[in-house]
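User: What would this chain look like folded?
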Amino acid sequence: MQYALYYWTGIQGRGEFVRLALEDAAADYIDMARVHGDAVMDAFLAGDGEGCAPFAPPFLKAGRQVVAQVAAILDFLGPTLDLVPQAASRRVQALQLQLTIADLVAEVHDTHHPIAASQYYEDQKREAKARATETRGQRLPKFLGYFEQVLAANGGRHPLRTHSYVDLSLFQLLSGLDYMFPLRMQALWPSLPLLAALKARVAQRPNIAAYLASERRLPFSTQGIFRHYPELDGTA
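Assistant: Here's the prediction, encoded as structure tokens.
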């Protein structure tokens, strides 16, 4: 099976969570917009493509099937790419964890766009600074502390006791937070030893290490989800 991944060019964004799974599994896939330009998504987003019309990228085409939303895509890919346990109960657990990651990703995005996604950050800087104080002080410890507890309850190395797409998504989440809130994450890391070790292990997986060193891995920037604005990082 050759997969077609559709996501905006120029940024990692939410598409990176899917891309990491495809890269880790050495799956055969085409990054469609990077090859053909963003317009390649237009027909799907207008409801004129095959399959169920996605609301927004990322979405994945596998044969004639179109799957949108990061968690749904990873749940779809997991069994085929051997990135989720086969037991139905464990697949549900993986999806639950992925959706919790998605919750935090949404909060992270809303930190720098607390009023409207359609407005520039510069138009809502005052509100973003207030939101960032809450994100740094309350939300990051709450979410990351939860994932640290999940790791501890499952042997310390993996959220599902074996490597899965959840490991990869946690790696991306933590990498993004390191870029966005370097001071705050430096203060939090001592309380998150299991997450820190997981992040390091994922980065050393052969296919992931090769991907991270390649031109396919775009850098974090102030155009994506995880944006570093020093004024939002506070003093930790």
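The chain has two domains: 3-80, 88-204. If you want, I can go into more detail on any region.
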